[in-house]
Write a structure and sequence with these properties.
Structural class: mainly alpha
InterPro entries: DUF6809
Number of strands: 0
Largest sheet: none
Number of domains: 1
Radius of gyration: 19 Å
Distance between the termini: 19 Å
Helix content: over 70%
Number of helices: 4
Shape: elongated
Pfam family, one: DUF6809
Strand content: under 5%
Length: about 90
């Protein structure tokens, strides 16, 4: 079962990269610099807020707008498991 999970993980990583390529979401050559500038700007903006507002906004961004890598992986793997169950039920 562990081998199947590892194969599914490899398939997921490959598929995510394919989707990023398909939608033009590959990392640019300047990605690290762009991300550093982005984070610095976000920090500057956040520090203009009161501690209470900053904490509230941070929680909103994380809870309502961000999907963690773990959650993405679980969703993908559950979909993969569902597909395997369907294939086995149909007898393919």
């Amino acid at each position: 079962m562990r081998e199947l999970a590892e194969q599914a993980e490899e398939l997921m990583v490959k598929r995510v990269q394919e989707l990023r390529d398909e939608f033009g979401m590959s990392r640019s050559k300047t990605y690290d610099l762009e991300m550093k500038e982005y984070v610095a700007r976000m920090e500057r903006i956040l520090h203009t807020l009161s501690e209470e507002d900053r904490e509230w906004l941070d929680n909103q961004l994380i809870d309502k707008f961000c999907v963690s890598e773990t959650e993405c992986r679980e969703l993908y793997m559950n979909g993969f498991r569902d597909a395997m169950r369907l294939i086995m039920a149909v007898g393919l």
